[in-house]
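Please produce the structure of this protein holding fe (ii) ion.
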Amino acid sequence: MAGVPGVMEALELLYDSQPFNPGPWVAHCLYTGEAARRIAAVCGMDEERAHTLGLLHDIGRRFGAHDLRHGYDGYRFLLSRGWPDAAKICLTHCNVAHSPAPAGRRWDCTMAEMADIHRFFSQTSYDEWDDLIALCDGLAGADGFLVLEKRLIDVALRRGISPELPREWKRRLELYDLFSRRAGQPVYALLPGIAENTLGFDPKDEANG
Ligand SMILES: [Fe+2]
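Below is the modeled complex.
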């Protein structure tokens, strides 16, 4: 596949990265990749490419426990490996609403790096791959799939809120509707265990109870 590694190579890279910064991010990437693969399969998109892009979107976390600079670190890292399409996702999933000049304290980068990031966003158009991974990032916890609202609140409680956040949430909710229409069914129906993982119990047991 042009611009991205194969799934096995992506998995190897992910597991090799874990010791540099141990944490739940690797499990989150595995679920993001799996969600992307499942959604791609019913939307006429390349499943393997979707899986790989989901696996690698947070690869910049191998460089440490940073905020949005993980997107820039991942972008630079994957570019240096010769995978520009996978590199692009590392940055676009950090700016889901596609602000031309993202700012704020969450961007823990130097001024020179921010100039590079602004150049990137001013020259980049988003495509279905950026949209798919932005959605899947919002559906994947470290212990399984979650409904979007629960995952977005969880991230906001851990990372704090910013003035840009409502636009980002709105865009992710739009992407949910967009891919559900394209799939011909609710995206949640494609993700096994999402109800149990979100609610903390199996609603079918309760109903039969
Ligand atoms: Fe992520």
